[in-house]
User: Fold Phenylacetate-CoA ligase from Actinomadura coerulea.
Amino acid sequence: MTSTILRPVGRSPVDGPELAARLIPEEEMRPWSVDAVPALPSFASKLRECERLCGIPYAETPHDVQDALVLRRLGQMINTVLLNPLWRERLAASGVTGPPATYEEWERVPLSDKTVQRDMFTGARSGMVVPLAHGGFEVVASGGTSDGLPLEIVYSLRELHDTYRIAGAFMGTYQLRDHLAGGDPKWLFTNLADYQMWSSGTMVGGVLQQVPGVNYIGAGPVTGPVLEHMFSYPGPKAMMGISAGIAILSDLGAGLSRQARESFRVALYGSGVLPQRKRAELRAVFPNVAILSYFAATQAETVGLQLSDDSPWLAAVPGLHLVEIVDGQGRAVAEGEEGELVVTRLHAHEAPLLRLKLGDRMIRRPALDGPGLKTGRFEFAGRTGDVLHINDSQYSAAIAYAALRDRLRETTGMDLDAAAHDIQFVNHREHKTITLLAAVDDADGLTCALSAALGPTGVHQVFVGALLRSLSLFNDREATPEAVERTGYRFQLAFVPRSSPEIERTAVGKVPLVRDRG
Assistant:
């Protein structure tokens, strides 16, 4: 079998398929009625039994054992959703009438998007296998939808709490343990300020509360005095928030005592990327801090965790979700290739949602396959919407920025990562102009320096070269310098003051990488 779930298949002394069939026996594979579904043993109980039989933590079991058990669980999920008429019709349209024998067969299951999620789990919630009237559910809403329409998902409370425990234990063992060491009390804060109904307000907090051995505080919005009070507690500290909420800590913490600043050990940021400028500012104030990504989304409270600040690669939590990186046909991409992030929650008997596209692009990376932890890894490559549309061609904004940054560094010595607090591409389609806005401390000085180094047309030429290195997955043979010039587009770089209103921000302070105007 090829590894859709980001992992090569290794061999182990335990026969994976035989063990999987023992863990999920045939009588549990095929619930014959909706009433039988809530009585199914939880998938978390199967992971615990796998640990007992193998004698090691599930996250450290061989890849072929994990792959076999997950495939068995996916087959059980298919049998379960076939009890629902809406799912049965949806799967039949793709030729899926029973459980997959291989991961290649699983890829025949149609991809779901936010529209499918909305249709199945908002309003009548007709995608649920067990009706909402049964009770025991939690409804969680998304606070970040771009179209402004409600987007909700439904969880079985028992299974939601299972996932909190699994993800929290993983974080404590493989991500935080070495940083939060010693005999003093250990602290894990979050400054997420969302409504508790929003996914980041309730679900991430649910995970953080389950990290063993830490004291959890859901702080909400943090001011300077509040941070000073929190950091007066003795012992090492970690904090999780959206990238903007973590970036501001360098300002809020500037007046803290040396002991308080040295006690901050881990900054966990969500929402994609924390700019290099912000990382440098954080480390200047908090000398012992490791800056790590916590990647989460509605329907997936912990998609991937960065285990070391030496590498941006994210690790999946074994047994929590099926994580796929797929091409335009929903097939797994090869290692090193970029694709769409697709997640299936494995702990979802009563309200499953199969193969949900989260709206992010990832690069599939080599799996961890040494002693200890064994899991798939991937690297964030940008939001699906982080694309520069130039006539009929599409360019990755993240790659275009990296190429532009590198070229400017080579030709002028200017480092955008070090200078910019925020960056944003603005595509004025009607006027055929793309501008990269960079919010900096000395906008006038950098503007003069750039003009002196490159002249009136230099930025345009550097921009064109960067675009040629940033073609999207589906347009990789379309553009040449001449073709880009024929589009009639002009490209420019503009330095603006820090917190300039020219850079568009969301209601919670996020800076989208791309904005289209007209």
Summary: Confidence is low (pLDDT under 50) at residues 1-11, 472-478. The two ends are 47 Å apart (CA to CA). The first helix runs from residue 16 to 23.
